[in-house]
Amino acid sequence: MNRGFKILLAMGLAMLSLAGQVPTAAADSVGYTVKALLPSNQLSKKVGYFDLLTHPGAQQHLTIDIRNTSNRQQSFNVSVNQAVTNDNGVIDYSQLKPKLDKSLKVGTKDIFTKASDQKVTVAANAQKQVTLTYTMPAKKLRGMILGGVYVEQVPGKTKKATARFTVKNAFAYAIGLELQESRQTVAPSLVLHQIQAGQINRRNYVTANLQNPEPGIMQKLKINAQVTKVGQTQTLLRQQQSGLGMAPNSNFNFGLPWGNQNLPAGQYTLHLTAQAGGQNWQFTRNFTIANRTVKRLNKTVLTPAKQPNYWLYAVLGLLIALLLAVIGYLLYRNRHQKSAK
Fold first, then answer.
1. What pLDDT, on a 0 to 100 scale, did the predictor assign at position 341?
2. Taking CA 173 as the corner, what is the angle to CA 127 and CA 222, rounded to the nearest 5 degrees?
3. Do 149 and 66 meet the contact criterion of CB atoms below 8 Å apart?
4. Cβ-proximal residues to 312 (8 Å cutoff; 6+ apart), any chain
5. pLDDT, tens digit (0-9, with 9 covering 90-100), for 226-281
6. What is the CATH number of domain 32-156+169-180?
7. Alpha helices, H only, the chain
8. What is the arithmetic mean of pLDDT over 75-100?
9. Are 39 and 62 in contact (CB under 8 A)?
């Protein structure tokens, strides 16, 4: 009996040790802060980004404050970036050289001096003010120019590599920048362009390129899209997303993942509806997936990950509970047998 008890106890401890192996991560301090010093032509005093009312031909110096809260000297790359829309449907200020939409007439790179992009070094536990200068075109602009002051921490040098690969953490702040010459806002719009089959991170997608050709920001965008065979009603792919945004004069690729579906070459129809700020758009467009495209995608596609087997986890948990109960019972009986002797 003692031998059987020891075997069960060893099995129970082994299973508990396997079940308890959960990875942990520790957060690292950023070590600096960035603040916009808002000028007198700031429209809203309640926000921490530049929301400025300007005029044709105006020149202005903007100032940001970088505070190094660490005990070591730090360097930062400061740039003024054009706001674009990334393929997640998020307004992005981090791209130094983004691909600009054809509808953009005047962007941040057209009005800010080249000296506005600079590298700044701040001593330990000190702060430094950085000046950025823009000049508006002589001709009055409609709508807004949207960008961001992007401050990126330069990673410190590693003295000695202790492993084959080293990971350097770098953090960045983005301060929004809205410039407009009128208090009258311009409503955004939505245009559907190219539809095609492609890959994102080696997973197959049907992507629909959506454009906001107006100099107005789009917020709380909701999109519902389905793909069917031409002339049929059965939905093959479906994707619905809400809370999206689009920068003025920008575009992005809205993706419908294939998932476990293997679309053969053929003729398809995209049905897409969108809503934002009381505006509604509806598109129905046919498109083709060529046989050569399917062959190319199949060569590099990742096999869809299998869904976790929750039943297996439940059974494993039940077995552990039963095993603990048996161990407890054996301990209890073993004590009573020893006390009886």
1. 60
2. 155
3. no
4. none
5. 999 999 999 999 999 999 999 999 999 999 999 888 889 999 999 999 999 999 99
6. 2.60.40.10
7. 2-19, 108-111, 291-300, 310-340
8. 96
9. yes
Q: Which residue has 């293997």 as its token pair?
A: 262
Of all residues in the chain, what percent are helix, strand and coil, respectively (each to 5)? Answer: 20, 40, 40
**Cα torsion angle, 293, 295, 300, 305, sign:** positive
- CA atoms 180, 181, 183, 184: torsion sign: negative
Task: State the angle between helix axes of 310-340 and 2-19 in degrees (0 to 180), rounded to the nearest 10.
Answer: 150
Whole-angstrom CA distances from 132 to 28, 91, 116, 161, 176 are 30, 22, 5, 37, 14
Would the pTM count as exceeding 0.90? no
Among 95, 97, 269, 81, residue whose Cα is nearest residue 176: 81
Ranges in the chain annotated CATH 2.60.40.10:
32-156+169-180, 191-300
Q: What type of residue sits at position 189?
A: S
- What pLDDT is attached to residue 30? 82
Tell me: the pLDDT tens digits for 115-135? 999 999 999 999 999 999 999
What separation in angstroms does the CA of 18 have from each of 5, 14, 30, 72, 323? 20, 6, 34, 41, 15
Q: Which two tokens stand for residue 338?
A: 């020893």
If you search the block for the tokens 């706001």, which residue do you land on? 83
Of residues 238, 271, 253, 272, the one with CA closest to residue 197: 253
CATH class of 191-300: mainly beta
From CA 283, how far away is CA 52, in angstroms rounded? 36
Q: What is the pLDDT of residues 296-336, one digit of tens each?
A: 998 888 865 555 666 677 777 888 888 888 787 777 777 77
Find the length of the chain: 341
Lowest mean pLDDT among 78-87, 179-188, 329-338: 329-338
The dihedral over CA atoms of 107, 276, 203, 93, expressed in degrees to the nearest 10, equals 30
Q: Is 260 helix (H, G, I), strand (E, B) or coil?
A: coil
